Write the structure tokens for this entry.
Amino acid sequence: MTDYDLIDEAFIDSSPDVVWRELVAELGGARRWWVPTNTFEAGEVPPDRVGGEVHVTVHTKGVDKGGPKLRFKARTTAVEPNRRLVAEYVEGAFLGTSEFVLDSVDDGRRTKLSMHFKVAPQGWLKVLAKVADIGEQHSKGTQGAFANLNSLVGAR
């Protein structure tokens, strides 16, 4: 079986509190910087609270472009505001965990944002993972999203 243990990082030219607000908003459904690859919809409890749920959709060809959609549900398991958000993927295309970590850099003027994605694909995705580099696609989408975030909030 193909499992993934990936860490993607980027430096965002803004303070951790600004990056945190944008991360929580995006996971709550803002669609400001992770589109076109991913969209998120929060459950009844917001993603920045333990027990919060987020329904994730990966749009393999981009939002509104057709193609397969990967859907899975994340449940928040740990939160340190402006610093760390951990979620467990509990059903759908992936089972496993993700962790976002925000580290203050340059006296708080910049943020090192990391996402640790440790998952196992499920269902038909498990078969596809034998012939397609899903990990590479995940990192490409995440790095693109982080670049979009930096363009959105950088140097504020």
User: Anything to note?
Assistant: The domain at 4-153 is CATH 3.30.530.20 (Alpha-D-Glucose-1,6-Bisphosphate; Chain A, domain 4). The mean pLDDT is 95.
